[in-house]
Specification:
- The chain has 755 residues and is α/β, with parallel strands linked by helices.
- Strands 6, 7, 8, 9, 10, 11, 12, 13, 14, 15, 16 and 17 form a 12-stranded mixed sheet that branches. It has a 7-stranded mixed sheet with strand order 27-28-24-23-22-29-30, with helices on both faces. Strands 4-1-3-2-5 form a 5-stranded mixed sheet.
- A hairpin with a 5-residue loop joins strand 22 and strand 23.
- Helix 13 packs across helix 24, helix 15 crosses helix 19 and helix 15 crosses helix 21.
- The longest helix is centred in the last third of the chain and has 21 residues.
- The protein binds zinc ion (2 copies) and fe (iii) ion.
Amino acid sequence: MSVEPIFRVKLEIKGVVQGVGFRPFVYKLALKGELVGYVLNNGSGVVAEVEGERKNIEAFLADLELFAPPLSRIDSVTTREIDPRSEVAFEIKTSKATSASAMVSPDVSVCDDCREEMRDPKNRRHEYPFINCVNCGPRYTILKRLPYDRANTSMSEFEMCVDCQEEYEDPVDRRYHAQPIGCRKCGPKLKLVNSSGEVLAEERLAIAKTRDSLECGKSVAIKGLGGFHLVCDATNEEAVKKLRLNKNRPTKPLAVMFKSIQEIKKVALLSQKEEALILSKERPIVIVSKKDSNYLAASIAPNIDKIGVFLPYEPLRELLLEKLDFPIVATSANLSDEPIIRDEKELFEKLSFVVGEALTHDREIVNACDDSVARIAGEETLTLRMARGYAPKSFHLKNATGKKILALGGRQKSSMTLAFGESMILSPHIGDLNSIDSFEYFLRTMETFKTFYDFEPDVIVCDKHPNYETTKWARAYAKENQKIELIEVQHHYAHALACMAECSLDEKALAFCFDGTGYGEDGTLWGGEVLLASPSEYERVCHFKELTLLGGEKAIKEPRRVGLALLFECFELDKILEMDSALARSFSKQEIKTFYAMFARGASSPKSSSIGRLFDGVFALSGYVEKLGYEGESGLIMESLSKFSNALESYSYTIQNGVIDWRDMVCEILEEEDASEISLKFINTISKIIVDVSAKYPGLPVILSGGVFQNATLVAKTSQAFAKEKRRYYVQEKTPVNDGGISLGQAYFALHNKG
Ligand code: ZN
Ligand code: ZN
Ligand code: FE
């Protein structure tokens, strides 16, 4: 009888390999191959040693990459042969905490196995609102520090019952080391409370009472994975109006949560891609086209043909929706410009005039996390807000960095990015940093990430805008800490770099950075830039003609001021005073004269090449003279209007000395009557400009980045044109194309900056 020789191999596996069922997976593979040894989590990933026959070890290594658990992502596996030890079994060892560079996984929506158990009256977790397993449930939002073990999460408060403990310790159970494991006996408990802290109902009864409240048109706050939602009946116009009024949110669209994709199809037209995105395990809010139907309250998304829809992402919302005959408005519970609320004390302190009841529980939300928002543009997926389900998002760097880089992003839709070793990590969406509270939340998130990764930066990257809180903070920090290298990156270049980072581009590219306003190198506000950009430098090759923001910040909320300024660039004052358009009529003659004087002197009227603002101006020219209810409203309404037109033409424009001049376009628009024609022709024009300018730089890859590319019609038209020409182009799909991606671009610059 021949005895096969025995070998032993040590493996180190890096990537998203903790809290995703990786060790039991390794365990099962080892048993299958009759291998002995061990597996454990450490601070940088998973370590294993396997011992057995050569062919079995080889099969083990092949299966490891082939059948890795659904939530895992292997970035690298290194193997090394060591001396056999003649053990008799394979075991899973407890975690060893070393330097923390393992990745934090995002929260994951309830999986099919758990859903089935939750619906099974015979299962001990029947209708248990916090059911989870190794393939689903909270991660980032309950985590205090790495490694991802129960003791390091807010589940540490809950002592496991005997049954849960048994599942937790059984390597073949699907809840083996599911850190948030629990049941009705031992896990978090559901309760409905009022603003004085009284418990109105518990467990199943709490869901039933919530249903009653929603049925009579009340708003209820509901705790979720990363924060509270404000919820009301989405078919009840009175209820929705009241919620809007109380929350002081006049027109910004509200997201609606449905119990099933079939229900969504009753109110929305879905493409296959949209349907798949809604059903994906990340469960983002997806912006889709409304159907003509009176089912939903009219004030959910006024003036636009779009609606944000999503499906429940955790068991509690599924259980509640099953008991309701209507979909619910689910908007994050916070005051505008303030961070998302994490506990009911704060909720009632700040929002008691909006909501009187909260469906909540006793598991602490350690890290807040908003809902993610995405939409489909032709073949592309656009990420508008990257949070629950997607973030923290880690990228594997091809070339490891010796630096520790912290990039702070901009001001709106803020996020931060860390880069160290072979990793680059983009935080969840933090929000607009317009208030003290929101900046404190930003700093708190920074501390969280520093703790996670045992990280102290030696490079800090920020925007160039002197008034951004992030820039001020970075400059002050660098002053106090002489060893810190401070890098400031121009805003729109950072947009281009964000796209390069996501697509791993390190060659020269032609970048169209079309955006709201950002601080330009020359002190003006940029936002309609064409850059020749590489990861280490850029050149501004052309840009849109500057328009004037009459009254500065005020003009951003009031498009008619931008519209008027466009007229000032094209016509004499007398001619404008004679005009009889909705725009001209919205001002008194005296106002027009005063603004003209302001324009002529340049007093408190900054110049900007922003296309976001050009959208505003054209919107006003087409007859919309009201104040905007939220940022980006003009673009969304114009996109909606454009659906009523079939125009293929675009307006005239000229390019001279690198300036894209829109004055001919303004004159042509004044000849038009129909707002939908204007909207579509304007979008056609922007797309045509991109294609025309690209033709002057053949051979270079094209990048589309910046907030303007949240416009799906623009992206779809432009990418169709490029596809036809077989032109290589890139749009961010997995990271935000808006300012949510700025920190990623900043970090990418620091990685390539030799300074
Ligand atoms: Zn599950
Ligand atoms: Zn239990
Ligand atoms: Fe921007």
